[in-house]
Write a structure and sequence with these properties.
By secondary structure, the chain is mainly α. It is built from 16 helices and 2 strands.
């Protein structure tokens, strides 16, 4: 696809179930499940191989999300500088993401791993926004919530697969297992990137000039006005911020907490896989729900139930923690990102969507940067149980803000009636 063709190409409108959505879902297994959340599951194996305290390793999680934040903030500038090259940027970011996962597998020191985590975060931010915007552009508006659910469902599949790798990846008898796991994940990412690119080329139709695009500079300015105005979508992105804060604490320290209680690595992996398996239903149900009830109240319900699940660690009973983890996977692991994505796609202009999604993702990334710092401090002072349980506080704040946003939406509809 040439630069001229990319600039003017429009994707043919399709149903939510199409090859491009499928490849986007497979890419999200890499973007979310492999490149970001697999770190928490692999943490015990990484610590045994290259050392470091859980506080130090949690800081590397923060480094990852600093890269993620930098990526979300720089992407609108790149889109403005190179209008019409969205497909090329996506192609490069997805392929490089797979390569950085392979590179991470060769880390011998914490500093090396930190640099790879920084690069992985940066590239996953690019890929998140670009894959979603390209895939959803090809879907009919009334089915974009379902399509968003199917794409984010890939993240749950990634969690499921990494859980199955746990006995191989973090077993003390296999010191280098985590390296092999990351190398396999990176190779899968390269294959998925190629599949998405080929599918996007087939879906492209009506070249240059069939739909004029407003200038990206204006789109970026409008994104800031839309998302940072208390009367528009500030409450939605604030909820996304606190969700990022809470959920990353939970996923960073859950498996270390479980293994510290003497749970064998096989069972720890099954718990992780259980979250991913529950998330498969969450993606489908959440997408259908937000299409049927496109409101902040729908989002708030999932976040509130996830708060209860994350709070299960308070009771120091493993069965309660496991049931809580299943609840998090079922109702609030994938729901907030997919619903936020779908709500923005419904309520912001087409030409401003990529910039709005990038800015909202920057709020999400900011929460993910703060989360490991706060969670790491709680772990160092009060132990892993307190660190995991603290995630419920921030998810509760996210639920309250989402409910407030839903009330604001209802008031606006009443005023327009």
């Amino acid at each position: 696809m040439t630069a001229a063709t990319e600039q003017g190409a429009v994707l043919e409108m399709r149903s939510a179930f199409n090859p491009l959505t499928l490849w986007a879902s497979l890419l999200f297994a890499v973007i979310l499940g492999f490149s970001r959340l697999s770190y928490g599951m692999l943490l015990p194996g990484i610590q045994r191989a290259i050392g470091g305290s859980y506080g130090q390793l949690g800081t590397l999680g923060t480094v990852n999300f600093i890269g993620y934040l930098a990526g979300t903030l720089s992407l609108p500038l790149l889109i403005a500088r190179f209008p019409g090259r969205r497909a090329a940027m996506n192609r490069a970011s997805c392929l490089l993401l797979g390569l950085t996962l392979i590179g991470s597998a060769f880390s011998g020191r914490l500093v090396q791993l930190g640099l790879w985590r920084l690069a992985t975060g940066w590239l996953s931010a690019f890929a998140t926004v670009l894959v979603l915007s390209i895939a959803l552009d090809a879907v009919r508006p009334e089915e974009r919530g379902t399509a968003s659910g199917l794409i984010w469902l890939g993240g749950s599949a990634g969690i499921l697969l990494t859980g199955f790798l746990a006995p191989f990846a973090i077993d003390p008898a296999r010191l280098q297992g985590w390296r092999h796991a990351w190398a396999l994940m990176g190779a899968f990412g390269i294959v998925a990137a190629c599949g998405f690119e080929l599918s996007a080329r087939k879906a492209a139709a009506h070249p240059a000039g069939s739909r004029p695009e407003p200038q990206q500079h204006d789109a970026s300015e409008r994104a800031y006005r839309l998302l940072l105005s208390p009367k528009k979508h500030l409450l939605l992105v604030a909820s996304y911020f606190f969700f990022g804060w809470g959920y990353i604490i939970y996923f960073t320290y859950l498996i270390p907490y479980v293994t510290s209680k003497g749970v064998p690595t096989l069972y720890a992996g099954l718990i992780w896989s259980g979250i991913g398996f529950a998330g498969l239903f969450n993606g489908w149900i959440g997408g259908k729900a937000i299409d049927r009830w496109p409101s902040g109240h729908t989002l708030a319900i999932g976040l509130a139930l996830g708060t209860l699940g994350a709070g299960g660690a308070i009771f120091d009973e493993m069965w309660v923690t496991v049931m809580g983890a299943a609840g998090v996977g079922l109702v609030s692991f994938i729901t907030p990102p997919l619903m936020t994505t779908a709500l923005l796609r419904r309520q912001v202009p087409h030409h401003a969507y990529a910039a709005c999604l990038s800015l909202a993702t920057a709020f999400f990334a900011s929460g993910q940067i703060i989360g490991p710092i706060v969670g790491g401090a709680a772990v160092e002072r009060y132990g892993l149980q307190a660190g995991v349980a603290s995630s419920a506080i921030f998810m509760a704040i996210a639920a309250a803000l989402a409910a407030w946003y839903g009330r604001q939406q209802r008031r606006e509809r009443a005023e327009q009636a």
